[in-house]
What does this fold into?
Amino acid sequence: MDKMSKVIEKRSSVRSSITKLVKRVQALGEETEDLNSLSELLELIETKEEILKKYDSEVEDLITDPEKFKVELKGSEEYDDKILSAKIKLKSKLKTFTEKTVQESHPSLNKSNISENAASALKLPKLEIPRFSGDSNFMEFFGCFDSAIGSNDSLSKIEKFQYLKSLLSPPAYNVVAGFELNEKNYDSCLELLKQRYGRTDFIINSYMSKLLNLEPVRNSSHVKSLRRLYDEIEVNIRNLRALNVTEGSYGH
It folds into this structure.
């Protein structure tokens, strides 16, 4: 048995397990299961999902025929959709179940407080804030920073400023490097970063530069490289469209 066949056989076993788990989720009724069993089911699906992604990646690396690669992608996307649908249903049931439990334990709480307590009771993934060096991803960086740090009332402005500096790399870091750590300078540095990197013209130029500097794929048999190139082009074009820059205006 060759390497491709071995990987596909292993993946088939994982796909079969996922199909069974998805069917269990679909069979859940309104009053079935408890918090622990729902959490365990979600954890099982997420674990199998990670294993499946590993095998999908291995299979993609071994395919050289573009047509077979398209078929492979379609099959992978079908399982991605199944898994996503199951996870959404499970998380919804977990939220509902937790809210009900909180309400029964604390009948004096209003609905908004119950939702807040329910959200706190669920295990949320750790938020990773991307480092910012001065490219077109400023709005993404600022959104993550503001959500996790900037809007956190338990932190002082000096602490927020320390976090901000730690998440910047040159040349963006050079904008704030000379400022002393105090509350007034925190506000000033945020404003400077917004003025320099949050301008629409700067962001558009960054996306255009990324498109112009994409590394070409010189061999049509490198299917994975072609897919990566396509994804990079698609991301930048969609970001430009979001800024009302259409393909017809490129170069003007």
Q: What stands out?
A: The chain has a mean pLDDT of 80. The two ends are 56 Å apart (CA to CA).
